[in-house]
Structures are given as C-alpha cells and as structure tokens.
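Researcher: We're teaching a course module on how sequence relates to structure. For the next exercise, students receive a sequence and then see the predicted structure as tokens, so they can try to spot secondary structure elements on their own. Here is the exercise chain.
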Amino acid sequence: MSMTDFPMMKLKAVVNFPANAYGGTGITVNYANGNYVINLDYTKFTQLPLPPDLTPFQMLIWNALTNSYQLMAFTASPYAPINNPIFTGDPQAPTAAPGDNDNSIATTGFVTAAIVANNGITRVVTAAGTVVIAPNDRVVVMNKTVGGPTAVTLPQASTKNGSVVIADFKRDAGTNNITITPFAGELIQGLATYTIAANGASLMLFPLPGVGWSL
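Model: And here is the predicted structure for the students to work with:
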C-alpha cells in the first residue's frame, strides 16, 4: 500500500467553528468552499518498536468496509522477543539429523540420539542363532540358554561407532567356539575370521575403516 492509499480524515466545520484551525505534527488543515479539511501526512509519523512484554498498547486501524477507524487493543505478552526470549511450557523445534554440527537448536530427541550413538549399548545375547553386531554395540555378552557354536558377524568398519567387546559369559567357548566374521572384503588382524576358543574369554575389536578390524 502506498502513501496515497491511506484513508483521509475530514472535518466539516459548522457555522460557529473557530475562524482559525492549525494542524500539529503530521496534520494539515485546508479550508475550501466553507469546509475545513484535515489531512494526515503519514510520512511525518515515526515508526516505533513494539513495547516490552506485558505492556498493553493500542492501534488505530482503518476499516475500509465501514469507512471508519477502529481502536484495537493489543498485549505483546503472547509473543517472545527475538533477543533473549524466555519460553514456558513445552517449546518445540525440528530435530536435526544425527551428526548435525551447526547453529541448529538441539532438541531432546537429537541429544538422546547422540548419547546413544556415542556411548553405545551393552547387549546380552541369550537366543540361539547368528549374532549380528550393530554399529552402536559396545559390549556383547554371550550367555545363550542353548549350548552350541556361535557365529558372529561384524558391520562394515566404517559404520561402526567405536570399539566392541565380545565376551563369553556362558564360559563354554572352549567347546562351543565363537567365530567372528568381518564384513565382506575386510579382515580381522589380517585374518578372514577370528575364533574365541577359551572358556570365559573376551575380545575387543577396533574398527579400521577401509581395512577391517584390529585387536
């Protein structure tokens, strides 16, 4: 909207209207054909910032449907200031992707995922079958309820978050060996597989991206 689009205030004087009428800042008074016309020059008014929180203020709004001004009351309290906002309740924000490292807001979801990814988890295996090591596994304890050899497969070294410990908690690896196999094309200390063959033994593996694993 341009300045010429703003509504104009008019005042028609009656017979006993004072002979002289003067306009203040931003107001001009014109006399023509027996009428005094008051105009507002909006360029003369200074734009002020919104008042601080909890400070009520009023605004004069032009209603084009009724051709009249309406006085509207506002309170700034529902809105947080841009500078040093203080939120209440349960404010929310988008959760950034894992590993994001910029000025994004860290939500509780982002922080929780980062803690899990960095600290990893300890897993106790009791069911029979092949054990697949997850990228965030830290300690994997073998305590199967059914005796028998155990096959363990490792993820691609470049996807593993830190080292992993594989432990024979059942203490029967001397009879029921635990055979560990790396991702296709990778090696464990130069070997295609590595076997835990002593009761109660454990093994710590360190990922070497692009190579495999070291002991």
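Model: If you want an answer key for the exercise: The first strand starts at residue 27 and ends at 32. The chain is about 5% helix and 30% strand.
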